[in-house]
Design brief:
alpha/beta; Rossmann fold; 2 domains; eight-stranded mixed β-sheet; globular
């Protein structure tokens, strides 16, 4: 196995987790950490035995792969020169601030033939990984992602902070053009929208109703999927799935019986799986799990929802 030289850009909350995974994986050397603050970079460097750098472009020629765990506002400025230099990148979601920036990153990665993976971590939830043979052509999707208020992440609306996870999942499930979008939201505790509801109607006829809140009293991450052969209730936080199907018998004359199946999954290390998938793609062992194009589509939908919320109501 060819050893890969890795770096983490952004010595914050998520950066530490990424650094821990790279440092523990076989076939990988965590050679550098990067942060604009000298104290943060030095602390990470001492913890993980890596070089401390202040400028991401110092990585050019020194690493093969890197995770970008900085605030979204600087993703494009950091990532573009590194992609142009042939460095494979795993960028935390969302991919960037704007669709134009995202498209530019995707084009750069394609031109250089490097891997660009986006950190939509929910893709690696064990409950979803186990349902690839069950989820098929949904007709209606209901999603609730609720969380108590935390100051971290409030520099962007809840659409980009939380809902974008579910938008990515919905786009993967439906695989159809969006035909209609309605959305409402409100800022409550921050300067950005803290609670948002969106109704998405796709060309297949599937409708998705999505709610994200970061001002709730409890945490909840649930997806309910209705399709022709089954109803699935997926608890992403508890890793539990209820599958209800039409049975062969009758509950009452003319009313079909319903069979139910309950599945419970052990916790996995989703970030480790994500980084292993990224490195596997770099080595040519597998397709990119969450491509730059996937990240672009999720961002585009999230921004469309934000624009719809700000559209003035019709008059007259």
């Amino acid at each position: 196995m060819t050893r890969l030289r890795a770096a983490v850009i952004g010595c914050g909350h998520f950066g530490r987790y990424h650094a821990q995974k790279y440092a523990a994986l076989p076939g990988v050397d965590l050679v550098a950490v990067v942060d604009h603050g000298r104290a943060s970079a030095d602390a990470f460097a001492a913890e993980f035995g890596a070089a401390a750098l202040l400028d991401p472009q110092e990585l050019i020629g020194r690493v093969d792969v890197a995770s970008v765990t900085t605030p979204t506002a600087v993703h494009h400025a950091i990532a573009r020169p590194l992609l142009d230099a042939g460095i494979h990148l795993l960028i935390e979601k969302p991919i960037s601030r704007t669709v134009e920036e995202a498209a530019d990153l995707v084009a750069s990665a394609r031109a250089r033939g490097v891997v660009l993976q986006i950190g939509h971590l929910e893709r690696f939830n064990p409950a979803l990984l186990a349902l690839t043979d069950v989820l098929d052509a949904p007709l209606f999707i209901e999603v609730d992602r609720l969380a108590p208020f935390k100051p971290r992440g409030t520099d962007v609306a809840v659409t980009l902070d939380l809902m974008i996870h579910d938008l990515d999942l919905i786009l993967q499930l439906v695989k159809s053009p969006l035909e209609r979008l309605d959305a409402v939201g409100a800022p409550v505790l921050s300067g950005e929208d803290d609670i948002v509801n969106a109704r998405l109607q796709f060309a297949t006829g599937c409708v998705a109703n999505v709610t994200a809140s970061r001002i709730s009293l409890k945490s909840e991450r649930k997806i309910r999927v209705f399709q022709r052969d089954a109803y699935l209730s997926i608890d992403l936080m508890e890793r539990e799935v209820l599958i209800a199907r039409r049975g062969r018998g009758e509950m009452f004359p003319g009313i079909p019986d319903v069979t139910t199946e309950h599945r419970k999954f052990e916790a996995n290390d989703a970030l480790l799986l994500e980084i292993e998938a990224f490195l596997g793609s770099v080595r040519g062992e597998r397709p990119v799990a969450v491509s730059g194009e996937d990240g672009l589509r999720a961002l585009d939908l999230a921004l469309r929802i934000q624009r719809e919320m700000r559209r003035p109501p019709p008059t007259g």
